[in-house]
Amino acid sequence: MTDAGGPDEQLLHRAAGYARRFNTLFEEYFDTLGTRLDAPSSSRFTPACLELLRELSLRGGKRMRVVLLHEAARLVTAEPVDGLDAAALSIELLQTHGLVHDDLIDDSPTRRGGPSTYYAYREQFPHHPHAAVGLTVLAGDLALALSLQVLLDAKVPGAVRQAMTEVQTRAATDTFMGQIIDLERDFTPTAPDEDLLHRVADYKSARYSILAPLQLGLLAAGEQPALFEQDLRRYARLVGICGQLRDDYLDLFGDAATMGKPTGTDIRDGKHSHTVSALLSAPLGDAERAVLEAALGDPACTPETIAAVREIGERRGVADRMRADMRRHAEQACLLAADWRPRWRAEAVTFFERLPLWSVERAM
């Protein structure tokens, strides 16, 4: 990073401001949500469900999707833009939906430093496991419906409201298909090829985390993102792949203390992530391959075994190749964003040029 007055620090300061303001907005949204829903007054489970969604939602991190939304609007204008608050709520409610369902699919006990919605219901209904599953599914479904409802209620012209709702509906649909092919990927008899890994990252993450915020921000600012569809999709895909590479890399080669969670989760779960696939296709010796294959899919795999797999990956150049792949995708995304300068405001374009490189730097 540059010094305190450098362009990166200025951009990050602006991003932190978006996040702080949104966190206040999100809290206010949940404070009044119960009064705006037509829930039966006799229901005890509905308020409990809303509280779980609130608690999970307000445990958010950097709110990068919200930042992308605001910076996309700044590509067009530096003036205040109507509809951004509704779009930000929609984006983060869709994210909440994804977290609730992901934790159920992955049987994850924790999320963002607290219990997952699924495990909260399991604790509440220890003798009714089917009820815990059902309520978790319904909680995620409710978050999805709310994410669309806030757009339908947005105080923007009808055509803009419809276009924004269509963007989020497509993003949600693509994400669901991404989750399906993500599960399908782990049933392949051999390590998946790069094309499949990238397709999963595109559908499951890039389209709702990067492409949709870009489109929503441009729409709110009066731009027509459909005119630049291919550019936006290529940029989102590259950034999404870079981010997934980073996450998969850190899962084995990251520092557990810094991340606040143990490494080796994908190994224990037997997931064919970028890292695991790179290990499986590396030129390993017989003894090295035996260590990897014994660890893969073993939920009781010890930290010592994970450390041994990590050492194999470092020795065989897997870590170096993954870092190089991250940087290659990031640099390609930067070049794409640089081409936006004749079209949009240079100050905001700089943010999208720098964003992919921040992703790489977080993995170093």
UniProtKB/TrEMBL annotation:
Its cofactor is Mg(2+). Keywords: Isoprene biosynthesis, Magnesium, Metal-binding, Transferase. InterPro entries: Isoprenoid_synthase_dom_sf, Polyprenyl_synt, Polyprenyl_synt_CS. GO terms for biological process: isoprenoid biosynthetic process. One of its GO terms (molecular function) is metal ion binding. The keyword Transferase applies. It holds the Pfam family polyprenyl_synt. Belongs to the FPP/GGPP synthase family. This is Polyprenyl synthetase family protein. It comes from Kitasatospora acidiphila. The lineage of its organism: Bacteria, Bacillati, Actinomycetota, Actinomycetes, Kitasatosporales.
